[in-house]
DNA sequence: CGTGCATTCTTGTCTAACAATTTGAGGATC
DNA sequence: GATCCTCAAATTGTTAGACAAGAATGCACG
């Protein structure tokens, strides 16, 4: 691992920048499952003080991207089947509420529509990385469009782990390229038609499919 | 405010103890809405180092019990009507999922039943404080009984703010003493009968009532 | 080969200090 | 007298170094 990693100076806080950098490296799979992250190693690597590294680790732990208990080293978690099921159960709970609410107004969020287009392009060109990214953007946009700060925060608590598993298992490669796009389209259509129950069902189906792909990657490969 | 507050030595970590102590003082209303909490003041008051106080404040901020932005002092938030609606929308989302899941198994969680008994006693004896406490315990027990780590964590993210508003508006005093207990009983009955939709409806009704009491306290008083 | 102890690593907490930012008060100006 | 500006004070962000306490590891010994 290269010493002296660089930090983008975008965020105002140094802790923010460090947090973002590590977060990306984890969800990209650059830091693999089971990897241990000590405070001093990160501090020296990024050339920051240990308390700063500590703060970043604590925030990642709060989002489920790291596990750690008192006096023990933080580690990138390995999600087993039970935990992936739990993750998707929770995710479905949040996103169902989101699409139902959106359907009640009949307004298709513009941001989600944009992400949907990006997914279609990525699927056509077989750009898996982009497809994963746009997929996350799509679901995040749906939740954000509800305009509920707390629903959004709960979703953030979930979506990090989703990215983690996606990046590490690369389950999207198992999906027929256009399947995801079609399932998304069904959700958007139901929202546009003002059908909350249908939207919720399409969403649940879509996420159950995604969960199935992840689990089959996990066991059979 | 008294200097040199005492910390219970139960939790292993000093930060944990500090966090718990401040958290209780906030949800009890001992630290009122709008109160500013500076790092140095807490540090001197509790006789700990500033970084320790900082860590506790950050954890409280993550749970919504404090608001703060970069370089500004933390403040106990004042929830307006829109935010209370958002809070209950999010809360209903989580707890509906919880009771539906429990009803699917037909198992009434023992812990919730215990809390229900405690509420009935408190209502009979008009012990409002105990009633609030037992009410929170009841709802927390329902969610915990699902056994989903992530659902529980999302609920924790919500329930702190619920306690905050309950403690500060004391809305429970508006409820006829036995109303809450009856509404809870309806939820438990539906769970026992294995009726997910009915359980969800009873829960939504119950929480909408609670929200209504809070909002009327907020405007009319 | 297994167990127990000591070393070492890592985290928890503190003290002290400086930098960067926000806040508030006072003064100058209109 | 009101408003804006400037500057000082207060507060947070970050660093460095240090020590204590708990966890992990390896080695010696039975």
Automatic annotation (TrEMBL), chains A, B:
Alphabetical UniProt keywords: DNA-binding, Transcription, Transcription regulation
Occurrences of domain HTH gntR-type (ranges): 12-79
Cross-referenced PROSITE patterns: HTH_GNTR
Molecular-function GO term, any one: DNA binding
Claim: Coiled coil is one of the keywords in the record: no
Highest taxon of the lineage: Bacteria
Pfam annotation, one family: FCD
Protein name: GntR family transcriptional regulator
Protein species of origin: Kribbella sindirgiensis
